[in-house]
Design brief:
With 97 residues, the protein is an all-beta fold. 0% of the residues lie in helices and 40% in strands.
Length: 97
């Protein structure tokens, strides 16, 4: 488990930025702004992770990520806003699914 601490001292996010062929598998992510935040991370693999009780998103994958593999992930927790509740599962800059 990767627990980023108390909410009032929460780190922004675990950001994957301009890194290709990164695999994140079988982790539990909690206590940050976003569980995983990916920008320009081509061929990113997010597999079988659980992201919960983060401030904004469970998983965020920007539109500039080419050929990602996203499967078997779970996000849950509430932020108090229906726009960012993590029960939306995955937020892509294109759409929520």
């Amino acid at each position: 488990m990767l627990n980023r601490g108390k909410q009032q001292h929460r780190p922004k996010r675990d950001r994957i930025d301009e890194c290709d062929r990164v695999t994140i598998k079988n982790l539990q992510l909690t206590g940050a702004e976003s569980g995983i935040y990916a920008v320009d991370a081509d061929r990113l693999k997010l597999q079988n992770n659980t992201s919960f009780n983060n401030a904004l998103y469970g998983f965020y994958v920007n539109t500039d990520v080419e050929d990602p593999t996203v499967s078997g992930n779970i996000a849950f927790g509430t932020t108090g806003s229906t726009d960012t509740d993590q029960d939306n599962r995955l937020l892509s800059a294109r759409h929520a699914s």
